[in-house]
Amino acid sequence: MPKRSKSSERWLQRQRKDYFVRKAQDGGQVSRAHYKLAQIDQRFHILSARKKVLELGAAPGGWTQYLESKITRGFLIAVDPLPITRGGRCRVVEGYAGEPEVNEQIIELLQGQKLDLVLSDMAPNISGIRAVDQARAMELADVALQACEDWLIQGGDLAIKAFQGEGLDTWVADLKKQFGRVNMMKPKASRPESREVFVVARDFNAAGQL
Ligand SMILES: C[S@@+](CC[C@H](N)C(=O)[O-])C[C@H]1O[C@@H](n2cnc3c(N)ncnc32)[C@H](O)[C@@H]1O
Fold first, then answer.
1. Where in the sequence is the domain holding 131, given as residue range(s)?
2. Which one from 17, 161, 186, 188 is the annotated catalytic residue?
3. Annotation marks residue 161 as catalytic
4. pTM of this prediction?
């Protein structure tokens, strides 16, 4: 067996010890990320049976699994270039959000309907250069915001993963011009050492000025 690098050995040890990883494994959840969305939903009540939801960055499918259990009468469109574990309720668009061909497929699935909720757990491939990674993460945040401008219903909601760092404060300040209520949350299931936070923006105002 090839020798593991120190960093992958550290990752494995952390996974073995991590409470939410064990809980996900014991409970048959696809990933620990499942609990992040569950905790966001417990606090902000963004999900209900009839919601029409677009999920960006859905693989491997932890959030999708939670969403499918909640959205029993609405619909769910999940986007990711990687394979998503899911049940029959979810429509998958394979590719990168923001790409024209992905947009076309979303439009086709929507059939003229608007979304109640846009979710994004998208994360860039990490280069290790903090400024580069942060800039990429902010670009993904803009992709999710564009999806809101294109397809979110008046009064709809957005919940998005972001990373603390350059550009986030300004981005959140701009978001407040387009949404009535904007909150930041660090779910317990998010690793304390991670810079990730979740921004939950409610009451979309399509006419809001940037
Ligand atoms: C942290 S993972 C998502 C975990 C997922 N929410 C879950 O619960 O299993 C981040 C995902 O973002 C995806 N991603 C990155 N850029 C993307 C883009 N432009 N469009 C769609 N997905 C993207 C990656 O492929 C990766 O699967």
1. 6-204
2. 161
3. yes
4. 0.90
